[in-house]
Amino acid sequence: AYLTVSIEPLPPVVVGDAVTLKCNFKTDGKMREIVWYRVTDGGTIKQKIFTFDAMFSTNFSQMENYRKREDLVYQSTVRLPEVRISDNGPYECHVGIYDRATREKVVLASGNVFLNVMAPPTSISVLAADTPAPFSRYQAQNFTLVCVVSGGKPAPLVYFKRDGEPIEATPLPEPPAGAGSWAPRNLLHRDLDDTKVPKSLAAEGELGLGHPFGTAEPPRGLAAERDSVTESIPETVVSREFPRWVHETEPIYYFRHTHAPVSDGTVEARATLTWTLNPQIDNEALFSCEVKHPALSMPMQSEVTLVAPKGPKITMTPTRARVGDTVRILVQGFQNEVFPEPLFTWTRVGSRLLDGSAEHDGKELVLERVPAELNGSMYRCTAQNPLGSTDTHTRLIVFENPNIPRGPEDSNGSLTGHCGFRLVLALTLTVILELT
Ig-like domain spans which residues (predicted)? Predict the structure, then answer.
């Protein structure tokens, strides 16, 4: 007796598709059985998923936990109505016949096929690395966009566009040596602008003293000027002062693409785009991350617009603060959509904050049990991201609290006043009586 077994090859299938596994065989013997196996763990484990017994003309499934997802269309065919990622892998069809010479001997042959199950990405997002981050008008800085694509199998093709045009980027195969070193040294280009440097700092630079201005703090003169109590309120100023290192030239982009397997069989892909930020031309620039995948009929994309913060909206609760209240000053939003996430810094104009600190980071400033001395104090909120900075101010008005008794000085003064009034009245009555 002879027996040949073959399985028709399958093209890649997408999660949710119906798949039919066909086992073709030729023989001149009498069939004994057909058994389908799913091979796992690199071939070390064979899980029996379907059996056809020709002797009793019966068939049954060993995949009860799959709720009998396979249907025997023919004796040599198994159908999977809705494939899953877990169905990915090799399958084997084993056929047994009786030998024509002796009915007690069984001849076996098998064939195999690999089921490649693809899954389209389920999510895509674009975010900025190292956020929130400050704005600097004195030092060029790198900026990195990160595109995260999850749920795909196999790994998708990820690329960036700017204002709808594909970006030609230099690949970066090696991971960064440390934080903040996403690009080579020549990515940073500094050309100091002496017109923005105070004379004292410029003199230090000429003499080789102190730190280079590229890493210096903002001039103390500017900080002192901003702390003046004569500032108008409310005030919103979007910084637009940039030194000469900002050039009206096309930036050089650097690109890195990595992917990591996930336990469910999918792949998480991460693509990064790094360049020297130019706030003059990058503000309001539209960047999109697009994904091509064999399981997608058209590219999948997510986009962001780089925008500096403008017009912070500040609320204060309670609206009429009284002595002893806890006051919360909160930034609720902006007049525009801001990306990336801003960094918020609170300061008190001309003095320190209530807790004695010079500044407070965060979207909310909390003043616990405000005293009467804070009445009229002005608070500045600086919101900034790598594209720009904006300041806004609010003044705290503290009213008297009738539930809190006055201090000992007020009480003594009040009693002294009453006693003085009674003494004058008594002396007046005595003089009148004597004259009478």
Answer: 16-109, 312-397
State pLDDT tens for residues 77-123.
888 999 999 999 999 999 988 877 776 788 899 999 999 999 999 99
User: Which residue(s) pair with 22 in the sheet?
Assistant: 77
Which of 163, 237, 245 is closest to 197 using CA atoms?
Answer: 245
User: Are 110 and 140 within one domain?
Assistant: no
Classify residue 99: in a domain, yes or no.
Answer: yes
Residue type, 195: T
307 within 8 A of 337, measured Cβ to Cβ: yes
Q: How many CA atoms lie within 13 A of 16 on its CB side?
A: 3
Integer Cα distance of 163 and 233 in angstroms: 37
The structural domain count of the chain equals: 3
**Backbone phi and psi for residue 186, each to the nearest 5 degrees, phi listed first:** -70, 0
* DSSP E strand boundaries for 81-202: 89-98, 106-115, 117-118, 123-128, 142-152, 157-162, 165-166, 169-171
Nearest CA-CA partner of 365 in 337, 338, 329: 329
The label of the residue with tokens 């904050």 reads 353
104 and 141, same domain (yes or no): no
Q: What is the pLDDT of residues 217-230, one digit of tens each?
A: 333 332 333 333 33
pLDDT tens digits, 405-424 = 765 544 433 333 343 434 33
Are 391 and 346 part of one and the same domain? yes
Q: Are residues 43 and 78 in the same domain?
A: yes
Residue 412: inside a domain, yes or no? no
